[in-house]
Amino acid sequence: MYVPFKFAKIEIKVYNTNIKTIKNYMALNKEQIKKFKKILEDRKTEIEKELSKFAKKDKHTDGGFVANFPDFGDTSEDNAREVAAYINCLSMEGTFGKELRDIFSSLKRINEGNYGVCKYCNKEIGEKRLEIRPASSSCVACKKKFKGEV
Questions:
Q1: Any long-range contacts for 17-25 (C-beta under 8 Å, 24+ apart)?
Q2: Nearest CA to 126 among 8, 7, 9, 27?
Q3: CATH number (domain holding residue 114)
Q4: How confident is the model at residue 71 (pLDDT cuts 50, 70, 90)?
Q5: What is the predicted pLDDT for the residue at 88?
Q6: 3-state DSSP assignment of residue 41
């Protein structure tokens, strides 16, 4: 059994057990979450479209991609171009892949009801940060600590 508490933009569900735990701290209202979900889904589609130009879906991972090795010909010059192009594709695949994983994680947090809450300190991430990077999973303070900037 849980008892919901609602305060303006905050919803806290407290589960009644021997140890009280706080779950589903809602930092954003439904309209804001809907807006960020659309932004995340649009970006996911855009990234998958870009990745499909030089990579194929990896059937061994959920949502992963594998860069295609290009074939420009059989000369040593062609082989050098192939390797250079493949290395470039691997780099882009890594960058897009990381962003895609962050988006999947954010969409999962939306479904679980804890989007907009820092995964390290459980405080609100802040709408301005989410507008800049909707896939953020940590607040600015924790991100700075994590990167050693504090």
A1: 22/122, 23/113, 23/114, 24/112, 24/113, 24/114, 25/114, 25/117, 25/122
A2: 27
A3: 1.20.120.910
A4: confident
A5: 84
A6: helix
C-alpha distances out from residue 6 to 10, 13, 83, 122, Å: 6, 9, 57, 17
Number of structural domains, the chain? 1
Q: What is the pTM of this model?
A: 0.70
Let me know if residue 15 belongs to a domain.
Answer: no
Coil, helix or strand at residue 23: strand
Is 39 inside any structural domain? yes
Q: Would you state the pLDDT for residue 24? A: 46
Place of tokens 């009644």: 16
The confidence score (pLDDT) of residue 122 equals 92
